[in-house]
Amino acid sequence: MANTGNAVAESDNIVVETAEKIFADLADPQTINNDKNNSWQAPLWQALSEAGLPLSWVPDDLGGSGASLADGFALLNAAGRFAVAVPLAETMLAGWLLAQAKIASPEGEMTVLPASPKDRITVDADGAVSGRCRGVPFAKSAKHFVVLAHGKDGVAIALVDASKARIESGLNVGYDHSDTVTLDKLQPLTIKAAPGGFDQTAMMLMGGVARSLQIAGALESMLDISVRYSNERVAFEKKISKFQAVQHNLARLAGESAAALAAATSAADAIANAKSFDDEVYLEAAAAKIRCAEAAEKGGGIAHQVHGAIGFTIEHILHRYSLRALAWRDDFGSESYWAVELGKLVAARGADQLWPLVASR
Amino acid sequence: MTAALRFDPIRLPPKCEELRKEVRAFLAEEMARGTFNPFKPNREDTDVPEFCRRVGERGWIGMTWPKKYGGQERSFLERYVVTEEMRVANAPTRRFFVADRQSGPVLLKYAPEHIKMDILPRICRGEICFAIGMSEPNSGSDLFAAKTRATKTDGGYLINGTKIWTSSAHIADYMIAIFRTSPPTKENRRHGLTQFLVKMKQPGIKVNPIGQITGQYEFNEVVFTDFFVPDDHVLGEVDGAWKQATSELAYERSGPERFLETYYVLTELVRAVGPTPDTRSAEGIGRLVAQLHTMRRMSVSVAGMLQAGKEPVVEASIVKDIGTVWEQQLPHRVRDLAAFVEETASNRETLERQLDFAIKTAPKLTIQGGTTEVLRGIIARGLGLR
């Protein structure tokens, strides 16, 4: 992967450096794209786990490696650059969610429920959880689910044995598992109240920022491989990178990639430095998901256009990034969901409070 | 990777927020005294000398420049706050903004000391207005095709030729222009142009207004006939203007004025839909705000890089490309959404008048200060494609 060397050299972040070395060794895009049996997944997951990366956001005393929020966000951006198809982001989010309620993280793959702001899980008086959640990433390969549930006493966070839930298997447009999970009066392994002020919206904003960073990373790689391809491919007796129409398309792709990166890293920085999920964090996180999703569509489209037919083949690595970036749009609230919610927030605050919100930092 | 584009999440330091409060209070005062109406971007009175002098008194013009030239030695991020607050309020900054953004920094870098001491403090006081003489009738984006000649004579140069699309030339006290001092060479077609400081309002300069499709007369044709410019008004290297042009571009291209020119219609749309918009309006507004927020974060990031002494030319070109395309489309998107605004909305007429003007303004936004095509060429070069 061409961008690995430079990204590592530029990085002053040990977590990202570690991850990029592992990705470069065990998740080379061309190698894993040729592997029809996905036999690369287990060694990759093992290496990531041994390095403590899936539990980056879990403090030491709860079984994790206690990295900062900022380091974990940078790790997700790197994971996006490699478009890795293992539940790294999901396990990180699950561990983070458990830590909110001071619940220790188990070993192995996890994912979070719900994965859509429209789904809702309830907890009854006995502490059993019930509900149906669609589009849950990697539910099929998770050993545990971390569930945010609503009960009479407010919001609770629960750790659930995944084998006890009913899972209807499905795939998203990026060919990764995106499953429907049904919990029917299931007794969690552990359940505790969420801290005051923490709710499903906060969870969705956090999940949305994770996906935004992954999309931004995938776009960085799409720009990189598209530029490289345009400098190699010859048509009409010259490199296609010399055609102005191609140059301008790639300039637009650079713009979309830059916008996604700026929006996602800004939102990550906002969450990493915020005391609570206030209106400013809401704007940052919602805007990131909206803008990154738009960039996934526009930028991915250009990357394909530059590649022509070869990029449309399953043998080529481009789809690993382009389709996953499109799939990630759907998780933790789509861009149209967040646009409606952000629009309502802006309207409720009133016209004269729009600029102060935008210019708040 | 091929293109190491960076947009670090720069935050404005706390002292910027204090400054922001001061600027907002000042602008509120100016609106109260009737200096300008923020709801009327198409007003006739875009040139308000007293307003400029009062901005100068606050120390908000040339605020990053050295104190000995009248500046405040404040940061680019502080300047950013002043610029965006003025722009959002639709304040009449035309008279000083070009000097503040571009002309002053060029003089700081290339003018002889006595000229700096003479002119820069007057810019800072809001007393003088600058124009930029780049385009000619047969030289627009292709800057290096400029033909207006500067012929060497005793103690200076004689200027003959025509500049065009020169904003504010009719009110400007000075112009910074490029003139041809030598023919281009075979090896370098950019060779032979020199940057000059020109004192306007003199015999030998004729300024002819050009009407615009908005109904305004902001740009001009400027005709030079045997106009004398003294030697000490040469800025930088004779025949070497091409070496001086690029580093300033990052300042010129990445500021908040590159995406906020039609912002007012978004504010009025939010007012018109009221506190509980339907789903369609809410989604449309949400997307526009997300796009706006993202561009501002990119633009602030470039300001932070400039403050850190970097030259993010490609990043700045990206900000202008995305920003100007956005502010160009904004009136049309707002028009789409406004089609369903209630007849009874209190600001309906204001919004309609604003849309009428913004829609007429829109075509120029991707042309002025470097066309989209030129910007994408610069970005492509940064990507290693040319």
Q: In short, what is this structure?
A:
The complex is a heterodimer of chains A (361) and B (386). By secondary structure, chain A is α+β, with helices and mostly antiparallel strands.
Order of H and E elements of chain A = HHHHHHEEEEEEEEHEEHHHHH
Strand composition percent of chain A: 5-15%
Largest interface, C-beta within 8 A = A-B, 63 and 59 residues
Shape of chain A: globular
The largest sheet of chain A, given as strand count, sense and whether it forms a barrel, is: 8 strands, mixed
CATH class of the largest domain in chain B: Mainly Alpha
Strand content of chain B: 5-15%
Characterise this structure.
By secondary structure, chain A is α+β, with helices and mostly antiparallel strands. Chain A has twelve helices and ten strands. In chain A, strands 1, 2, 3, 4, 5, 6, 7 and 8 form an eight-stranded mixed β-sheet that branches. In chain A, a hairpin with a 2-residue loop joins strand 4 and strand 5 (154-161). Chain A is globular, with a radius of gyration of 20 Å. In chain B, 45% of the residues lie in helices and 14% in strands. Chain B is of the alpha+beta class and 386 residues long. Chain B has twelve helices and eight strands. In chain B, strand 6 (205-210) and strand 7 (219-230) form a beta hairpin. Chain B has three domains: 14-128, Butyryl-Coa Dehydrogenase, subunit A, domain 1 (Orthogonal Bundle), CATH 1.10.540.10; 132-240, Butyryl-CoA Dehydrogenase, subunit A, domain 2 (Beta Barrel); 246-382, Butyryl-CoA Dehydrogenase, subunit A, domain 3 (Up-down Bundle), CATH 1.20.140. At the A-B interface, helix 1, helix 7, helix 8, helix 9 and helix 11 of A face helix 3, helix 8, helix 9, helix 10 and helix 12 of B.
